[in-house]
Amino acid sequence: MSGQVFVAMSGGVDSSVAAALLRERGEDVVGVWMRLVPGGGADTDAPRCCGTDEAGEDARRAAATLGIPFYALDYAEVFGRQVVDRFVDSYASGETPNPCVSCNHHVKFDALLRDVVAKFGGARLATGHYARVADAPDGTRRLLRARDAAKDQSYALYMLGQRELSRTVFPIGELASKAETREIATRWGLPTATKPDSMDICFIGGDYRDLVRDRAPRAFDTGPVERVDGSVVGQHAGIGGLTVGQRSGTGVATGERLYVLRLEPERSAAIVGTREEITRTTYELRDVSFTLGTPRGDSFATSAVLRYRGTPLAAAVEVIPDGAILRLAAPALVAPGQAVVFYEGDEVVGGGTVRAGAPG
Amino acid sequence: MKRVYLDHAATTPVDPEVADAMARVLRETHGNPSSIYAEGRAARELVDRARGDVAAVLGAQPTEIVFTSGGTEADNLALRGVMKARRGLGDHLVTTAIEHHAVLDTARDLESSGQVRVTVVPVDRDGRVDPAAIAAAIEPKTTLVSVMHANNEIGTIQPISEIGAICRDRGVKLHSDAVQSVGALDFDTSRIPVDLVSVNAHKFYGPKGVGALYVRRGTRLATMQTGGGQEKGRRTGTENVAGIVGLGVALRVAAERRATESARQAGLRDRIIDGVLARVPDAILTGHRTERLPNNASFCFPGTQGESLIVALDLAGFAASSGSACTSGDTEPSHVLLALGLERHIAQGSLRLTVGRATTDADVDALLAALPPIVARLREAAAVSV
To answer: Mean pLDDT across the stretch A142-163?
Structure first.
């Protein structure tokens, strides 16, 4: 393929090596770094955040080492709206958000990709994700797991369609291991070679609950902890601090192990149950998308992955208007707001977001 | 790809004669100008000669020239030095809405420390300060007025002589940040009633990291830093000898070439202005149409973002600026453009093109061919995204 490849450089080793690999292939590479924190993050305590000016300096040094043009571009507004606000709203409405999915969906592969192509005339966008894109014989582009299964990040990329995949490159998804990534970084003398991996939620330094409490104080109204039958077994300090599936120890004076089954934000109630009560086989999904644009059929068998680096579970998917029904072969737990991704072998065929609501 | 450099307001390439003179100093004159022995005297002589060259171009006496580390330090020294020296006599500072941050932020800093009251005078749509507005802002306790000679973003030249006459009449000192204009325009302190003038070498083909403050004799100036007492105590610290020599040579060369070069550059500027206004729909010229720096053509293109313009132009081989700090990924619209009364979304689509000695007609042709499709593409892309 010809034309310029823009690499989204976070300042970390993975995206730096992605740029290095493209350079080695002789591609015409341009580095871009996205400012995600307003004001550059001087007053945040989120040292791992790729969108702070400090990370931008790391990215700039890596680009200079590789000898590629580099631009720092401002995406703080769209990140704040599409990732941080959604994160807060999600917790406040009793869901468990997945900010990496939001960021890929709305920032990297929407706002940035569109700018690269439409504004700067770039042919493709590369990122430092551990995933692969392959050309199928039928001319379509397929999203695949990374060669290194332990580092695979294809789960968080399920929303990519043909339009995005046709312009996307994941150079490090082809590498055998993270050790190989670091080896390439060392060979190029990249200043990011020994930088630790990013973890947790990139834009939060401490406890995510502090952010939610600050932005949506009503999510920290106290409320009842109830069993499925309506009996009140305790009090909680706010649904903004609870996640479906978590052990519900506090305030529950029973001998059983109880877990959060459901959150009802309109009355600030937390419903708890036993392991048996909270796991289900059927979930309703919203915002369902398919990498080929359309599903293979109205219903199909799949391997469903319910969390980042989760084990694939045998399941059937039934496409319904405005979403899909997921039927797992065995009961499992996934919180509303989380992504369920459909795999066929190593290929991602699509996915969706678990809808909140009573068990189906 | 051939590069076309159209950001001479940001910085200029060092003149070969300047580079030679500086290299000679670095290789041959290692003495400290404060030392009394031969090596020191040799260095002192170089500094004195440069001081004489700078003074000659500015119509000043050598003792009125204080070397600094650049324009920012000269501005800081002027504002802080004068306000401090006259503390107790006055506490009021008048400046304008379109000053460089080196002046505006310094004024704000003095204000926030509680020592100084600040009045910021607005400008008209062309970026011109009304001398009557300065006159109206002056109070009995006004110590200093600071009005830039020519604006770094939009190129508008201020009626500095009129403002100076008012200040002199009212017994108030006038500082002018002439960082963008000295070298390109005649700035003769024997004719312009101004008391302090900031100058920066790298804006007129000299080195970065050296500047000067003209301080009219009789103007009291407190020092900002304490130390060995160099520059008659006004700017202490061992002199940047090579840089000072470079500044002196650069200003002398600029003055020699000024008449022909400024006229030539104004011709290129006008070709850019006329060409862009004719070829880019809804382009807005920012700054005064005629009372502007000979090398400055600046615009707003509604429906675009300055940051994207700069990236797209760079990828096409052109170095330009959005007229605001854009290297850090900051897209805040410029305070200068907002002061003209432009709406934020229009001010965000700003582009500053500044020609220089090496700019040719062919460069302008290339720009006029490349820019319109880039603006069209960015507008189209912006219209798609919501």
So the answer is: 96
Q: Do B381 and A118 count as a contact with CB atoms less than 8 A apart?
A: yes
Compute the residue count for chain B.
386
Helix/strand/coil for B200: strand
Q: Transcribe B317-381 into DSSP letters.
A: TEE-B-SS--TTS--PPPHHHHHTT--HHHHTTEEEEE--TT--HHHHHHHHHHHHHHHHHHHHH
Mark A149-166 as b/e (b = at least 16 C-beta within 10 Å). Answer: eebbbbbbbbbbbeebbe
B16-253 has which fold?
Aspartate Aminotransferase; domain 2 (3.40.640)
Span A63-118, pLDDT tens digits: 999 999 999 998 999 999 999 999 999 999 989 999 999 999 999 999 999 999 99
Candidate from B329, B381, B384 with C-beta closest to A74:
B329
Task: Using alpha carbons, list the distances in angstroms from residue A158 to A78, A203, A349.
Answer: 20, 22, 7
Backbone angles phi, psi at B294, to 5 degrees: -65, -15
Show which residues of B are catalytic. Answer: 326
At residue A124, φ and ψ (nearest 5 deg) are -145, 160
Q: B50 in helix, strand or coil?
A: helix
| Per-residue model confidence (pLDDT) at position B326 | 39
Residue B242: which of B89, B32, B58, B94 has the closest Cα? B32
C-alpha closest to that of A313 among A337, A276, A283: A283
**Residue A103 annotated as catalytic:** yes
A120–B312: do the CB atoms touch at under 8 Å? yes
Encoded tokens for B333: 């619209």
CB contact under 8 A, B377 and A118: yes
**Encoded tokens for A278:** 């909270």
Residue B176, both tokens: 């002018």
Separation of alpha carbons B379 and B252, rounded Å: 45
**pTM here?**
0.88
Indicate the residue of A33, A40, A118 with minimum beta-carbon distance to B384. Answer: A118
CATH topology of domain A280-354: Elongation Factor Tu (Ef-tu); domain 3 (2.40.30)
- All CATH 2.30.30.280 domain ranges of chain A, comma separated, are 221-277
- Matching fold, domains B4-11+258-384 and B16-253: no
Q: How many CB atoms lie within 10 A of CB A298?
A: 10
Parts of chain A belonging to CATH 3.40.50.620: 5-129+170-187
* In B35-189, beta strands by DSSP E: 65-68, 92-96, 117-121, 142-146, 173-177
Q: Encode A177-197: b = buried (16+ Cβ within 10 Å), e = exposed.
A: ebeebbebbeebebbbbebee
Q: What is the pLDDT of residues B71-126, one digit of tens each?
A: 999 999 999 999 999 998 999 999 999 999 999 999 999 999 988 999 999 999 99
Q: Is A100 a catalytic residue?
A: no
Of A53, A69, A74, nearest to B307 by CB-CB distance is: A74
Chain B residues within 8 A of A111 when measuring between CB atoms? 385
d(CA B336, CA B322): 12
Q: What is the CA radius of gyration of chain B?
A: 21
Instruction: Report the Cα B23 to chain-centroid distance in Å.
Output: 26
Superfamily of domain A221-277: Adenine nucleotide alpha hydrolases-like domains (2.30.30.280)
* A5-129+170-187, CATH topology level: Rossmann fold (3.40.50)
Q: Which CATH architecture has domain B4-11+258-384?
A: Alpha-Beta Complex (3.90)
pLDDT number for residue A199: 59
Rounded (10°) angle between helices A13-24 and A178-187: 70
Q: Report the chain B residue with the minimal C-alpha distance to residue A118.
A: B381
Task: Give the CB-side neighbour count of residue B283, counting CA atoms within 13 A.
Answer: 22
Phi, psi (rounded to 5 degrees) for B7: -135, 50
